Amino acid sequence: MSYLQKSPWLIHYDASGCNGCDIEVLACLTPVYDVERFGILNIGNPKQADIFVVTGPVNEQSKAVIERIYNQMPSPKIVVAVGACACSGGIFRECYNVSGGVDKVIPVDVFVPGCAARPQSIIDGIITGLEVLDEKYKQLKDERKRRKVERANG
Amino acid sequence: MKTVLTIVLFIVAAPLAGGLMAGLDRKAGAWMQSRVGPPLLQPFYDVAKLFSKQNIAVHKSQKYYVLCFLVFVILSGALFVAGQDLLLVIFALTLADVFLILGAYSVRSPYSYVGAERELVQMMAYEPMVIITAIGMYMVTKSFSVADIAAFEQNLFVKLPGIFIGLLFVLTGKLRKSPFDLSMSHHAHQEIVGGVLTEFSGAELAMVKIAYWYQNVFLLGLVCLFFASAFWLGVGAVMLTFFLEVFIDNNSARLTWQFTLASSWIAAAVLGMGNLVVLIFI
Ligand code: SF4
Predict the structure, then answer these.
(1) Nearest residue on chain A to B202, judged by CA atoms?
(2) N or C: which end of chain A has fewer CB within 10 A?
(3) What pLDDT was estimated at residue A71?
(4) Total count of domains within chain B
């Protein structure tokens, strides 16, 4: 197990929707749920984040923002889509400006269902995501090793 | 030989103590907000994690600035524990801060720039009081050397109460705590985003964090110096100072830079200079 699992920092972006899930994500930070118990911080800075938590469906305006935040995050990184909207577009999926769930724009690792997703399930989703994060870290390490060997071999 | 040992001990033990203090800080903060809070060793986990992240520094120069920041913070701490000149220690620490600011300026990011500018204001705010502290210690002990000051037979606090309180006042800014945390936020959700730290990530951010651990240990050492003749009193004062800072941090919001600058200078003028004037006449 790497230290990534012990100190996941997340960045949260509300892509649109009704803001219900948005508020539930913030509820996780309150004394009742207190995600800092797991070392989770809502760091708010993509360059320092490990987990990208997206709520709400992707629309024309939020598309570019989601892509930019994702690209600014250093690997290993994972994406957690929170709520029915972020998973599939939810109740907004047929709107003319909505292209669907977050997976239409960036690769998503964990889907948390619910409308709104409850804080318990959001925390559960993030903790599940930590396994994926660790897996990605291992891949990154192997990749680095392979490149080193390649460089050594010219 | 003894000095070398002390320096080695400082270089090894200070980050451990500083990291534990940071953990205690977060734990105590969580208690004050009736939360459970992270494990005590959380800051160490954070730093270990940051070292395993991908390197996405925009400029290579940023890395060197951060390295210089860390090296000069360690240097100032090492000079302090080696009992060298107090003024030299203070200037080395200032130089370290300058490197952090250069690091923030080396990236073209508005948030980083805002943070760097505010960091400069912050330095302007606390620097006079820190210098006055050194002068006050000199006036009492007739020496700038930390070793001589520490060996002085009387408690400095007795003669320098004003300067001590003034130093506590600016220490809040130096420890990057509310209400004087002008230049950075621990979580980037506020008006200045991450401040100076916005553009630091991965290993660089980890080095900045370690540098702050060193610096905090050194600053509390400075507090301890006021009570050098009675060791346990000094330890008590350090602990009290630390919890006072955490308490203030959790109970206040950031003030404007104008207010911070004005109040720090007023504190330096009234408490610091006042104390010096009294010293001249007694
Ligand atoms: S999933 Fe439901 S609660 Fe969440 S943003 Fe969409 S509509 Fe709102």
Answers:
(1) A48
(2) C
(3) 92
(4) 1
User: Is the CB of A76 less than 8 angstroms away from the CB of B193?
Assistant: no
**Contact check, Cβ <8 Å, A44/B30:** no
Tell which of A3, A25, A53, A69 to mutate to test the B interface (max B CBs under 10 Å): A3
The answer to whether A119 and A24 have CB atoms below 8 angstroms apart is: yes
Of B26, B48, B201, the CB nearest to A74: B201
pLDDT per position as a tens digit, B223-279: 888 887 777 888 888 899 889 988 888 888 888 888 888 998 999 989 988 988 988
Measured between alpha carbons, how far is A146 from A152 in angstroms, rounded to an integer?
A: 10
Domain membership of residue B159 as a residue range: 2-281
Ligand 1 contact via A121 beta carbon (within 6 Å): no
Residue A11 CB less than 6 A away from ligand 1 = no
Q: Which domains does chain A have, with CATH numbers?
A: 3-153 (3.40.50.12280)
What pLDDT was estimated at residue B257?
85
Q: Return all residues near A101 (Cβ < 8 A) that are at least 6 apart.
A: A57, A58, A81, A85, A86, A87, A88, A89, A108
ipTM of this model? 0.89
Q: Is the CB of A115 under 6 A from ligand 1?
A: yes
Cα(A23) to ligand 1 centroid in Å equals 10
User: Chain B partners of A50 at a C-beta cutoff of 8 Å?
Assistant: 49, 53
Q: What confidence tens digit (pLDDT) does each residue in A97-127 have?
A: 898 889 989 999 999 999 989 999 999 999 9
CA of residue A47 to ligand 1 center, whole Å: 27
Q: If you measure CA to CA, which chain B residue comes closest to A47?
A: B201
A93 lines ligand 1 (CB under 6 A): no
* pLDDT, average across residues A126-153: 89
